[in-house]
Design goal:
heterodimer; A: alpha+beta; 2 domains; four-stranded mixed β-sheet; 4 strands; 61% helix; B: alpha/beta; eight-stranded mixed β-sheet; 54% helix
């Protein structure tokens, strides 16, 4: 083998080695992201369970512990952002992404049910719920705009509790929620403080349906209803 | 699609860059770097300066030749006025009485005809050419001639850099030329050069008798000649310390015109000499340098088109998604809090960083071996920031010219 052939083979080996190393590094980083999401989900699950247990122990709502803008809510928002970023990177067909999305959806439903329960018991707790049903399968042209408008609303009104659900996610609890809330196509579909809507896309349309007077008030720690 | 093209391009580019670095470290390249300039037994040489409308630069070019550190009785200079319409003839005529200089005025016939007249008129052993917008370092000739020690060496190229770069575009080209200095040195070590640039390339005169004189060569007679020499089995060497400085275009349009000529010349000459391509007989030139140069043009075009398509799609998506949400919201999303989770690290990003790092190393190799003293940090920054956005302009233009069979004027 002459020096040129030796250098060419060596260059090929180094190039392949660099490709494998870099792709492995990116794979490692993606796994670390998945683990981070899993860790946040575990923490939220634990916090939710803790709140539920407090509820049960006291035989009444732990109103002093919660507010509309609770830590739990901001963690759910953070989790949603990370999950969305990971889904963009790995694709919505990735098994890990689907698994994490199912867990996230379950946490959202649990948080929604818990907050509903708390809002009945705590006098100052008047959360505004938006349940948003979208699709990533190309059958919802307005979903991108609607999702963006909701992210703006969530940032503008920190007390707004937005729960986003992938309409097509294969999850029993989600199907039940859809049935209970009578969610039907066309998408995007919403339940905004108990009322169903379909096809709202723009910020103006969505803002029109929100009880802005509730969102504008500041909220301290809640107190229990007396009657 | 875009990602697949990027991965293929990056793989080939990294392979090429790593091969170049390994070759730089090889014994053959080291020997060439260590070669000392000749200090005795000076051969008779001639330098031909073909001119067309170069009234502003020809004087400086001639003066730099007259300051060459070389015995004056062994150095002839031929100034060929190729039918200039400006004051070039008058400037040239001021040198008619100089004992080393021969001034020839002729009808305009193209650069190759001027070079051939000079070759016919001289009895020198080695013939060099120097574009009339270039200037040589006094030691350059002795450096060049040292590399003719092998009788199979038909031509020796110099280390060409930009003369006094002033604006951003020229500084960008300065960095690019330094990469050229490094790559020309490296690929000379494996006889992989396919161009003997106009500024101060030298030829063994006897070779012209075998292969013939310069031809039109699709306005790139230096490329055509180099490919012809390679086809005849000759070697083309490089003298890395032979410094020559050329005027670089000052405007984007002038640069695009120049590079369109070079790129379309490469495509056309490569087609004329397609027997070199993928031919194991021509080793690195045939199996790596020329095919990768063609692929670089193809991938550059493909990536530019895909970039435009992707950008258009992205903008359409942004506009569709934005709806009536205030634009300030985009800014809050565009600058999120620092979090390792959101670092945009992909395989392409990391491999691109490695590619850029090797480019930087190559430029500094060029700076080192050419003996460039000035700092190149800013030149490098402009090169990395702008080059890939300007290059597609001449790639598109030259590809269109070649496909449509369109021939442009030199200037």
């Amino acid at each position: 083998m002459n020096p040129i052939q030796r250098n060419a083979l060596l260059a090929l080996a180094i190039t392949i080695g660099l490709f494998i190393t870099m792709l492995a590094a990116v794979d490692y980083l993606n796994n670390a992201r998945i683990e981070e999401i899993g860790r946040i989900e575990d923490k939220i699950a634990l916090d939710t369970l803790s709140l539920e247990t407090q509820f049960d122990l006291l035989a009444e709502a732990p109103c002093k512990e919660v507010s509309e803008g609770s830590v739990l809510s901001s963690e759910l928002n953070d989790l949603a952002a990370r999950l969305s970023y990971t889904e963009d990177r790995l694709g919505s067909d990735d098994e890990e992404v689907i698994k994490l999305k199912r867990q996230y959806t379950l946490l959202e439903i649990k948080d929604y049910l818990l907050m509903k329960r708390l809002s009945k018991e705590c006098v100052d707790l008047k959360p505004v719920f938006v349940l948003y049903f979208y699709s990533n399968e190309g059958d919802c042209p307005g979903c991108a705009e609607a999702g963006y408008a909701l992210s703006y609303l969530r940032e503008t009104y920190p007390k707004l509790r937005v729960y986003s659900f992938d309409y097509n996610l294969d999850l029993g609890a989600l199907k039940t929620l859809r049935a209970v809330l009578d969610i039907k196509e066309p998408l995007p579909a919403y339940v905004i403080n108990g009322k169903n809507y379909n096809g709202l896309v723009s910020l103006t349309e969505l803002e029109d349906k929100l009880p802005l007077e509730l969102l504008a008030t500041s909220t301290a720690t809640s107190t229990k209803k007396t009657n | 699609m875009t990602e697949a093209v990027l991965y293929i391009t990056l793989f080939l580019a990294l392979f090429f860059q790593i091969f170049a670095l390994l070759t730089f470290l090889s014994r053959d390249a080291r020997m060439r770097r260590d070669k000392q300039r000749i200090e005795s037994n000076f051969p008779h040489v001639a330098v031909i300066v073909p001119c067309y409308n170069e009234e502003t630069t020809i004087g400086g070019t001639v003066e730099s030749l007259l300051t060459l550190d070389y015995p004056s009785d062994k150095l002839d200079i031929f100034l060929i006025n190729d039918g200039s319409k400006d004051g070039t003839a008058a400037v040239m005529d001021t040198y008619t009485t100089h004992p080393q200089i021969t001034v020839i005025h002729k009808e305009n016939g193209g650069k190759h005809t001027g070079l051939n007249i000079g070759i016919e008129r001289t009895a020198a052993e080695f013939v060099g050419c120097l574009d009339a917008d270039s200037f040589v370092h006094p030691g350059a000739l002795k450096e060049v001639l040292a590399h003719f020690d092998d009788p199979r060496v038909a031509a020796v190229t110099a280390s060409m850099t930009v003369h006094e770069p002033k604006n951003i575009l020229q500084r960008m080209q300065f960095a690019e030329y330094l990469a050229g200095v490094a790559l020309r040195h490296i690929f000379a070590a494996v006889n992989g050069l396919y161009v003997t640039p106009g500024p101060f390339s030298f030829y063994r005169k006897s070779v012209f008798q075998e292969v013939g004189g310069f031809r039109y060569g699709h306005q790139t007679e230096d490329m055509e000649m180099a490919m012809r020499l390679q086809k005849h089995g000759y070697k083309i060497e490089n003298a890395p310390r032979a410094q020559v400085f050329t005027q670089a275009p000052r405007t984007v349009w002038a640069l695009v015109k120049q590079r369109t000529r070079w790129t379309s010349g490469f495509m056309r000459n490569s087609y004329d000499y397609r027997g070199l391509m993928l031919n194991p007989k021509y080793s690195v030139l045939g199996l790596m340098v020329m095919p990768l140069a063609v692929l670089a043009i193809a991938s550059g075009l493909a990536l530019f088109v895909l970039f435009l398509v992707d950008t258009a799609r992205f903008m359409a998506r942004i506009i569709t998604t934005q709806g009536d949400v205030p634009w300030t919201h985009s800014l809050t999303l565009a600058f999120p809090q620092f979090d390792w989770f959101y670092l945009p690290i992909t395989g392409l990003f990391l491999l691109g960083i490695i590619g850029v790092a090797i480019v930087v190393v190559t430029l500094y190799i060029g700076k080192h071996i050419s003996g460039t003293k000035r700092s190149i940090a800013l030149d490098l920054a402009w090169y990395i920031a702008f080059y890939s956005f300007i290059a597609p302009l001449w790639l598109l233009r030259s590809t269109r010219d070649v496909i449509l069979g369109y021939n442009r004027a030199w200037r």
